[in-house]
Fold:
Amino acid sequence: MPDSPYEWPAELWERLRAAAEDEPESVTAAIVRDLVPDGGTVLDVGAGTGRASLPLAREGYRLTVVERDPGMIAGLRRQTARWGVDVAVIEGSWPEAAVEAGRHDVAMCANVVYDVADVGPFLAALNAAARRAVVVEMTPHHPWQSLAPYYRALHQLERPGGPTAGDLAAIIEEELGVAPTRREWSGPGSLRFSSFDELVEYQRRRLVLPRERTAELERLLQADIVRDGEWFLLGPAERTLVTLSWEASP
Ligand SMILES: C[S@@+](CC[C@H](N)C(=O)[O-])C[C@H]1O[C@@H](n2cnc3c(N)ncnc32)[C@H](O)[C@@H]1O
Structure:
C-alpha cells in the first residue's frame, strides 16, 4: 500500500529504546525479572529494537527474540553489538515462528497485540511457549485513539473506541481460562521526532491523508506539539501503560 499507515519506522523505536536507558527500569521488565528463575530464559515476541527486553539480556538472562521487520532487527543487532550481549534472533512472524522459538521460562510481548488480526492463536502460542508465565504490555486503549480528534477534523469520521487492554484481558480469560493480573503504570513512550516535518509526515500516514493536504495537517497539529530538548512530541512525553501477566497453563 503506498504511504501505508501500518509501517514501523525502526529509527523511531531506536530513539525510544535509547531514551529508556536514562529512565528507571520499566514495570514490565521488573515483572518479568520477578518471574524468571536465575539463569532462566526469556522470549520476546515482536521485540522491535529490543526496548522492552534487551536490558534483561544485559543482566545475563538468556533472551530469544522474534521479530518480522528487518529494519527493527537491524536496529536490535546494532544495540546487541554495542552492549556485547548475545541474543538469539528469529526473523519471522508469530505464531508461525513458535516452533523455531521453542519454550522459555517467560514469554513476553510489548506493544504488539493491537497489530494482531487474529489474537486468539497469537495468545495461545505465547502461552504454550512459556514454562512459567506470560507478560504482555500495551497501552490502555489502541494507541491511535489519541488521533481521533484529527481524524474527525480531517475526514469527518469517528474512529472506533476500542480495542482496549480490558478487551484483551477478557479474551485471555475466554481463550486460556485464566484471569490475568493487571498493573497500570506511567512511563515514557511518546515517539520522538527530530523535526516538525518528520512528525507531520509520520502522522500524515497514520491519518491516511493525501500528501497534498499536508499544510492542513500542519495547522491542526501545531498547537499540540511539545518540545522535549531536541525532540518534537505530539502530546505528553509520559503515557499510561498496562502490563498483564498470568501463569502459563499447560
Ligand atoms: C510497536 S513495535 C514494539 C516493539 C517493542 N516490543 C517495544 O515495545 O519497544 C511492534 C513490533 O512488533 C512487530 N510485530 C508485529 N506483529 C508481529 C508478529 N505477528 N510477529 C512478529 N513481530 C510482530 C513489529 O514488526 C514491530 O517491530
About this structure: The pocket of S-adenosylmethionine is lined by residues 8, 13, 46-48, 51-52, 66-69, 72, 93-94, 110-112, 115-116 (CB under 6 Å). The chain has a mean pLDDT of 94. DSSP finds ten helices and nine strands in the chain. The domain at 10-142+160-189+236-247 is CATH 3.40.50.150 (Rossmann fold).
